[in-house]
Amino acid sequence: MKTNPTALKLFFKFKLILLFFVAFALISASPKINKNYNSNPNSNTNNLVFNAKGLHFETVLTNIFKGNFIDIPFDRDHSTFVLLYNAYVTTYAKHCTSSLPADKIELTRPECVKERVTTDGYGWEVSRICIEWIDVGTGLYAAPEMFNAKVILENLQAGDALRNMYKMMKQDNPIGTATSVLNNSQAADADMKALLKLNACKSAGLMRFQENLRLFALGKQPIRLDGKKTTVVDFNNQNLTKLAEDLVFAHSKTWAMNRYQRGSISSVSKITDTNGKLTEIKTRYVYQGFSGRRNGSVRITFTNGLPECLYFFDFPNACRTANRKIVAQYAGGNYKK
Predict the structure, then answer these.
(1) Which of 103, 85, 97 is nearest to 37 (CA)?
(2) I need a labelling partner for 52 at 20 to 30 A (CA). Which of 72, 122, 181, 299 fits?
(3) Where are the domains of the chain?
(4) d(CA 71, CA 205)
(5) Angle at Cα 194 formed by Cα 65 and Cα 186, nearest 5°?
(6) Are 72 and 216 spatial neighbours (Cβ–Cβ below 8 Å)?
């Protein structure tokens, strides 16, 4: 088959853009989640020595270890964190095999088994995409709790592929963005190899880092190095309308197409458990979409009295992590009536 050089150049540029979405899949795990695992964190505060000195992501990795999630500059569904998480799991699988538990789970990678080739009227190939994938074992393994968080994390990002593509295509330099993702992927791999040379596989410090890495991936509260406990907030004297307003507005900054109408939160309803603890609030809001002004809704779930996930009406099963700084302000009493 003849190949048009111009088409090849265009196809190459398109492949660079796709790196934004497939970089995390290069070390993808199987979609099946093992529910039988022990997720109890290492609560030993003795000998918690952790070294990330000189690494590209030194500050981020150190904040994860300390449980200082507020100062991490991205959310769990950001490509940089997905790359860091996958790089850690894969590197640990390669260099700390003997430290894995007996119920470890094999990691997999996607492999294309069927392609769709498109040609123009002259027989020139204009595109080639994979339309069928299978998971192939890598011979590498992960602890069940790390594996499960990896699957949840990657499913979350995969569900946002179209939204992320649209956002990137609107940028002035989409190819530059894709290249930046590739650079971050290489930096993450290099950092994790160095990290496991600086910290022993089963050292208390590395295990604390690993547990907080998993908690961040799940959108959970961290284990703090300073020993401070999560504040339990009495929701009865809190301005939940203002809280919902701030959380939705903060997340709306990441929206690709819709625009949130500031101050439009209304009809806030509360749901509590049998012990009277707040577990969820539901509310409505207004946004501007392609077809004009529309109404939307969101559920905000709470864990241990603090906001955890936002579930928007258009992605009802996707947990959007509550803004960490707003959660900290809520815990600190900034939303009292």
Answers:
(1) 103
(2) 181
(3) 5-217, 235-331
(4) 20
(5) 100
(6) yes
Token pair recorded at residue 271: 């749901």
Q: Say what the pTM is.
A: 0.73
Q: What gap in Å lies between CA 148 and CA 33, rounded to an integer?
A: 5
Q: Please, is 115 exposed, middle or buried when counting C-beta atoms within 10 Å of its C-beta (0-12, 13-18, 19+)?
A: exposed
Mean pLDDT in residue range 39-48 = 53
CA pair distance 148, 157, nearest whole angstrom: 15
What is 126-142 written as a DSSP string?
A: EEEEEEEEEEEEEEEEE
Q: What would the two tokens of residue 94 be? A: 């390669």
Partners of 285 in the β-ladder? 296
For 190-217, write each residue's pLDDT tens digit.
999 999 999 999 999 999 999 999 999 9
Give the C-alpha distances (Å, rounded to integers) separating 41 from 70, 71, 81, 198, 215: 20, 22, 21, 22, 10
Q: Is pLDDT at 167 greater than 80 in this prediction?
A: no
Query: Whose structure tokens read 């999560």?
Result: 230
**Residue 50 pLDDT > 60:** yes
Residue 77 φ/ψ region, left for φ over 0, alpha for ψ in the -120 to 50 degree band, beta for the rest: alpha
| 219-229 pLDDT, tens digit each | 888 999 877 76
Euclidean distance between CA atoms 173 and 164, whole angstroms:
14
For residues 148 and 141, what is the distance between their CA atoms, to the nearest angstrom? 12
Buried-exposed string 318-330: b where 16+ CB fall within 10 A, e elsewhere: ebbbbbbebbeeb
pLDDT digits (tens, 9 = 90+) for 231-260: 668 888 999 999 999 999 999 998 878 999
Phi/psi of residue 265, nearest 5 degrees: -60, 135
Alpha helices in the chain (DSSP H): 5-22, 58-66, 79-95, 144-159, 161-169, 174-198, 204-217, 240-252, 324-331
| Side chain identity at residue 171, one-letter code | Q
